[in-house]
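Chains adopt folds. We examine one example:
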Amino acid sequence: MRYLVLLGLLVALAGAAEPLAFRPHPRFLYTAEEIAAWKADPARQGEVQHVLTRADALLAEGLVVPAQEGDWVFYYACPKDGAWLQPESRERHRCPKCEAVYTDERTKAAYRTRLNDALNEDCITLGTAYALTGERKYADAVKDVLLTLARLYPTWTRHDRWGRKGALAVVGGRRYAQHLDEAFAAIRLARAYDLVATAIPDADRAIIERGALGDPVREIRRLQGFVGAKNNHQTWFNAAYAAVSVAIGDEALIRDSVDGPAGLRWQLTASVTDDGLWYEGTMAYQRYTMQAIMEHLDALKRVGITLADDVRLKSLWTGPLNLAYPNGQFPVINDSDPASLDGWKDVFRWGYGYFGDPLLALYAGIPADGARKPELKSVNLAGLGIAVLRGGTPENPICAMLDYGQHGDHHGHPDKLNIVVYAQGREWLLDPGRLTYSVPEYESWARTTVAHNTVVINGANQQPDTGRLLHFETTPGYAAAFAISTGAYPGYTLKRFLILADDLLFDIFAVEGKKSAQIDWFIHGRGAITSPVALTERRARLGEKAGYQHLTHLREGQGEKWLPFTFTPPNGRPYRAYCLTDDTTLVTGEGLGYQLTDTVPFLLRRQRGKRASFVTVYDLSGGARELAISSAIAGAAGAGRGNWTHWKIRLPDDTAYQFSVDLGEDPGGMTVGTRWLEHLRCAVETPTYSTRAMLREQHQHTPVPADR
């Protein structure tokens, strides 16, 4: 009822606003003027001929509308290896990798989804051919498809990818298995219809506009609340509403797509963080959402609506820059896949055309006078909850990220306080992302805590949690971040403190709980592992669930202090992890990376008790140097009253680093020189930087009280 009242108010306001201008067809994918310019351009005659050749081939083959419903497209993949299947016929589908043949109904239904997607694009090709030539044969083929879809739509049963049907399938579709796919298809069909509308009799147009276009989006809008308005699906729903509105001339629906209770403006506020990142915390869905928004904005532009001055909208294009490694690659966090800024050139090209910002032109590969790519610096992406630490040298830029914030909704992973690390020109410590939805390992590995660079308690996955950043600091000498989670494992507090100084990354992970537990610390890094202590083969699995079952080639031994484990990638420049605390058990082996065939070495350190502390220094120099490390440095920066720990690292050339950090949830204060600093969280001394000297020079201190 609330939604209907708001929609009624929206319609009333729309009536008071200046009416939208719906130009004659075609007015969506192309206008008549754009078609005329295309035909007149000698440089584009090859494109014209390509469209007509493809359209003629489609007419010769004949268009077939699947009469039965489709299913989730990810079911058209081999569950053994994730490879997309290949059809031998509509009844038999073969895996190109393992040669397995699938004839089950779910696979065949997923194949029908592939056929439906192809049919939608074929209709656009035929519609474009009609717009270019005016030959009715192309328009008639599209008309026949749309009339068939209008006739079949009410006969199909609403169903979802979990097998529910009818009233239970509230997020399911009819032609497809989910509203998301129905929305995507509606955009394509609206484009095709708009291109041929002038060649269709009025009676047939009424049937198509109602049954092939209007009914699907009306059903989506009626049930959209079951998906969740914040979700990326809603961006596609809104884009579909706008696309169909432009095609059929529905002003109220197009205004609702922008300013309705779940419209685009609302989503920009609710679903986009202040950092310009999509709340689900995955670059795959950031791009997927932006694709829907671009489709939406393209439709709005055809009726004179622009949002080009919306700063939050534009931030979707600039925000991802802060999450990129120095080589432009994105970390594969949550349900994501490997991607890079170079792979987003089409997105930046569109953004440059819409917003006119020369910065976006640079990332699109378009020269822009006076524009320069920004220097990426350490930053706390507070909206998403990722602290990005940057350092190193121009020859060896280093980046470490600490994921502490919101879970990421349906596409989040149980990986609070996970880290990823880039150095020596490549990602070293990685997040496996999602693999692919079509394999069991998506649930049994990618969505487990074991698969990430964090801690696992009692062999169980973390619970969804939003952690807190207690400290973030950038200075000319280092960058630091300190985060806490109290909900990932109820009854246990997880804390992680990172300091990046030059080519050293200092890492303390502390766990405290009320009951004794098995606490496992994991890192998954590229490169063959060399252990400083003797390890023996372990034949028994580490566990049978929660990801442990996928850890293979196990070797184990007893832990000692000051152990440097070396990861040597193919380029020969090693990474070293100095393990500085006593761990009862050490295990190395292999887990999974971005694909089932991608094996990644791991290091496990295990402690037991109510408390655990894992102190690690990562040497990211890529050289063969050995570090001399000691703890509890007397007089390094003062004793302090908080939960302080002090470490000194000496390089072979005798240069030294000192790291002092307070792991207390509230800072306990610290003496630096002769001054008491009540709110100090960490103090760092490097060959080129001194916290003590900086504080003395800036006079940012208070006298030590007499009673201390």
Residues 1-15, 634-640, 700-708 have pLDDT under 50 and may be disordered. Residues 348 and 541 are 47 Å apart (CA to CA).
